[in-house]
Design brief:
18% strand; 396 residues; Rossmann fold; 16 helices
Length: 396
């Protein structure tokens, strides 16, 4: 008679204690930085998983706090005036500004903080968000199984910098499981690390916040995102300038291309038809999604495209680039429209057609909401990660 191995019969601890490590995590309630990671942590509580979050320090942040019931520890990695790498979406640019010294300091401090937190919290697992820098620090410090999730910017770093790929492969070898938030990212990771087999599990959206309602402006097109080349706002401005419909454009965000985009808008005669707004808290974003006839997401190689998901949850019609993770979010002609990347003329034609046919646009918005609820609800995502954690725990 054969016996069943103990690791297959012994249940995982209840609660299963998981340390989240991320360079971007909400600094306060309602903060958009890494909000999806906090949302996942909260949803996991109903699945028997207790999360403690670890993130870098920044100006005016306490080193210990609690957000939505999740304890958060922040670690120092440099003198206060140099702790500027995290939260702003400009980590690489900031690292270059200091010749990489602050990045080296952050990696060293993160490694020590992970080891300390695992011991102090009695963590059974570590979930590193972004293979760099969190995954790299966790893989070199943790003595418990590691789950590494890749969100997009970290994969683009490895694609753009071949010297980073051995480190990516090393982190994945050290990981008990790896996930990406879209199929496009999974394919990109396998291209650089052929031995890897990342599962595709998205991050959760705030389904309780992003809901339909209000009255839509039939001529308003909305853009939400960084004002940089990758997000594609310049293509949207050109498209609006060539549309037959006299649409208005609202751009929410900031970034390095802001001045150039203002000049472009003026040169193309759109100065009086564009509204420029700074980044908005999530409750305000929901209002903007509800007001727009169309939410345009002209990004190239988006890791997932959470703006598209949030807009769908609000019942907005989404027009997005057929690129990156957006292919997982929008099904062309059913839950929105897809257009070729960096193709303003094609984008203009699709925008014109939808504004001229509000019934068709509304139908796409309704189907988009159904799809987003089924895929991106916190409970659905938490169920998948809880199972990944338990498999990693038993296979340790």
């Amino acid at each position: 008679m054969t016996s069943t191995p103990a690791h297959l019969t012994t249940p995982a601890p209840d609660p299963l204690r998981v340390l989240f490590v991320a360079h971007s995590f909400p600094r306060h309630e309602g903060d958009a930085a890494g909000a999806f990671i906090l949302r996942l942590a909260v949803a996991l509580a109903d699945r028997g998983v207790a999360v403690h979050a670890l993130a870098p320090s920044a100006a005016d942040l306490p080193l210990s706090a609690e957000l939505s019931g999740i304890p958060v520890t922040r670690f120092r990695y440099a003198p206060a005036r140099w702790e500027t790498l995290a939260y702003g979406g400009t980590m690489i640019a900031e690292a270059r500004r200091t010749a990489g010294l602050t990045m080296l300091s952050l990696l060293a401090a993160a490694r020590g903080a992970v080891a300390k937190a695992v011991q102090a919290q009695g963590s059974h697992l570590v979930h590193a968000h972004w293979w760099f820098p969190s995954g790299l620090a966790a893989a070199s410090a943790a003595r418990v199984p590691i789950i590494t999730t890749m969100h997009g910017t970290d994969v683009r770093i490895a694609r753009a910098v071949p010297a980073a790929r051995p480190a990516l492969r090393w982190v994945l070898r050290r990981s008990a499981a790896a996930t990406t938030v879209s199929r496009w990212l999974a394919d990109a990771v396998r291209g650089m690390a052929p031995a890897s087999a990342p599962a595709v599990v998205p991050m959760p959206a705030a389904v309780e916040l992003f809901t339909p309602g209000g009255v839509r402006d039939p001529k308003l097109i909305l853009f939400v995102g960084r004002l940089n080349a990758q997000k594609g706002a310049r293509h949207l401005i050109r498209a609006v300038a060539t549309m037959n419909q006299r649409a208005r454009l609202r751009l929410i965000g900031d970034g390095p291309d802001a001045d150039a985009l203002h000049r472009q808008a003026g040169a193309q005669g759109l100065a009086n038809r564009i509204e420029w707004l700074p980044p908005q808290p999530q409750p305000a974003l929901a209002t903007h999604y509800r007001q727009a006839a169309i939410v345009a997401v002209p990004s190239i190689e988006e890791g997932l495209g959470m703006v598209a998901v949030e807009a769908q949850l609000c019942g907005a019609t989404v027009v997005a680039s057929a690129s990156g993770g957006l292919l997982d979010v929008v099904q062309d002609g059913r839950t929105g429209r897809l257009v070729p990347p960096a193709s303003p003329d094609h984008l203009a034609r699709v925008l014109d057609a939808l504004i001229a046919n509000p019934a068709k646009a509304a139908a796409l918005g309704a189907e988009g909401r159904k799809s987003a609820l089924a895929t991106f609800s916190p409970d659905a995502v938490a169920a998948q990660y809880a199972e990944i954690y338990r498999q990693a725990f038993h296979a340790r």
